[in-house]
Amino acid sequence: MLSFLGAGLLSLAATRQGAAQVLGGDGGTLPGQLRHPLEPAARCSECHAGETDAQGNNYMAADTWQSSMMANAARDPLFLATLTVANQQAPGVGTFCLRCHSPSGFTAGRAVPPLGTGLDPVLGDADGVHCDTCHRSVVPTGASGPLLRNAQLYFQDAPEGELPPRHGPRSDPFQSPRHPSVGSAFVRDSRLCGQCHDVDHPTQNRLDPRDGRDTGARFPLQSTYSEWAQSDFARRANPETCQSCHMPEVGGEPIPVTRIPGAPVRPGQRRHDFQGANEWGMALLRAAFPGENDEGFDAARRQIQGYLRTAATVELIDPPRTAQAGATVQLRVRVTNLSGHKLPTGYEDARLMWLQVQVGDRVVSGAYANDELVEDGQARIYRFEPGHYADGRVTRSDFVVAHDTVLEDTRIPPLGMMPDDRTRPVGRDYSGGPGGALRNYDEATFALPMPAAGGAVPITVRLLYRTTTRHYVEAIAGANTTDDRGRTLTQLFNATGRAAPFTMTTATASIAVTGGAPADEGGASCAARPSPATHPAALSLGALGLALVARRRRNKLRR
């Protein structure tokens, strides 16, 4: 009856139905059911680490995995601070969170206490999503497929006296002296990832932000797998899977999969970096665990940055070539999503992407000041913004357990996306794609004021991205009253550039401005006169004041 949950788990563990509600479903391997616990990654690294390719690069699974967010899912300072606040607001809910972030801790019953203080690093609980999580994950016997969403994973077990097999992508796996090995198509299947990379609120239904009406569906906390499954990437004759993008092939000559003498060499091995979009997360981990894996975290951050640069394109559509001095011209910009899911995706509370438009040395939209995006009247922002409905009004929600409405979902869909009610955009129309699908691009028009002096004026449009925001970090840290995780997060945030925006891609043009006084004759040119720095982290005080006014206005509208 899942008595391990205790009476504190939202007071719902007295019955199996209540416990299933808190855990986000009644399926998957539950605590105490495994005869053979999930083993720590250190056991796997004894064989699957330590070798390099012909260029001297690490390629083995354990080596590349250890610098990933998967490997650090249970000790990420941002997650831990959020976990503490979630438990303060809904006591016991942390067990649900740890089901994803520490499968070995959850299945062993150590996800109680729900703050994660019962996790055992020696037994692999701090390894996050580790080797056995994927390589013992199976489709339940007799089922048509896995249980997608909320980490309802079933793990391969074995009778007493035997060892559970590990599942790999090849039909002729090498038989390790450590464990049986079997081939499994499921290891190459995006549904393996969809077990965790679709997450619904365990207890809260989604409400209509207009009147608080219960929609009857759970509030979506993450929908990355569904976004992919509804896209052309999934429907192709040879689908582009999560693994094919986030676990690129090593390439080159066939190489060993293990250090065991006599092991065969294999072509087409996949790296286990699990490249994603948590660019600042690598700096956060490096600062949180100094000296442990500095080079690995630095390398992972560079890889993620390179990955982000391939996720989208920015195009200036028929930009004006000439303009009169002092005039205002229109610039149309197109951003195309090249990824297999919404852009951005992932943990949706704080990820942020936007266009920054600059005329000469003046940022006219999308400026960044005081560690925050300035939401001017032209700002083009791509984000998921949750809300909370109470007392007849909806307000922005900073805390995951309080989310019940979607205020905004302006993220760019993937190619060919056919959404359902759970994934449909909110606050921006992306209709008009081929065959009734959503468009995988967004177009926005910006009004650009020309300088008063003549000459060539450069136009620069950047697509900027942040893993998290100052607002979110401060909200989590400020709400933390149980332990020091909020204070630790603040210290690390300040020590790592405060999650400064990363430039994904840039487009440029030049406008020939005619008329007006030449810039070198003392004309009041906004492109020539002294101005604040144009790096994304700088803005004039005047623009900052406008930003604060705009923020107050939005807050009033929400109230």
Describe the 3D structure.
The protein is an alpha+beta fold. The protein has 2 domains: 22-196 and 241-274, no CATH class; 311-558, Immunoglobulins (Immunoglobulin-like), CATH 2.60.40. It is built from 16 helices and 23 strands. It has helices at residues 16-22, 41-45, 61-65, 77-89, 94-101, 103-107, 131-135, 190-194, 224-229, 232-235, 242-246, 279-288, 294-308, 470-479, 485-495, 541-558, and strands at residues 137-138, 154-155, 166-168, 181-183, 199-207, 214-222, 255-256, 265-266, 312-317, 322-324, 328-337, 352-359, 362-365, 368-369, 372-373, 381-382, 384-390, 393-396, 405-409, 441-449, 453-466, 502-514, 517-518. The strands form 8 sheets. Strands 10, 12, 13, 16, 21, 22 and 23 form a 7-stranded mixed beta sheet that branches. It has a 3-stranded antiparallel beta sheet with strand order 9-11-20, with no helix packed on it. It has a 3-stranded antiparallel beta sheet with strand order 18-17-19, with no helix packed on it. A hairpin with a 2-residue loop joins strand 14 (368-369) and strand 15. 47% of the residues are buried. Mean pLDDT is 89; it is low at 1-18 and 521-559.
Element layout with pairings:
Blueprint: H1 16-22, H2 41-45, H3 61-65, H4 77-89, H5 94-101, H6 103-107, H7 131-135, E1 137-138, E2 154-155, E3 166-168, E4 181-183, H8 190-194, E5 199-207, E6 214-222, H9 224-229, H10 232-235, H11 242-246, E7 255-256, E8 265-266, H12 279-288, H13 294-308, E9 312-317, E10 322-324, E11 328-337, E12 352-359, E13 362-365, E14 368-369, E15 372-373, E16 381-382, E17 384-390, E18 393-396, E19 405-409, E20 441-449, E21 453-466, H14 470-479, H15 485-495, E22 502-514, E23 517-518, H16 541-558
Parallel strand pairs: 3-4, 10-22, 21-23
Antiparallel strand pairs: 1-2, 5-6, 7-8, 9-11, 11-20, 12-13, 12-16, 12-21, 14-15, 17-18, 17-19, 21-22
Helix pairs in contact: 4-14, 4-15, 12-13, 14-15
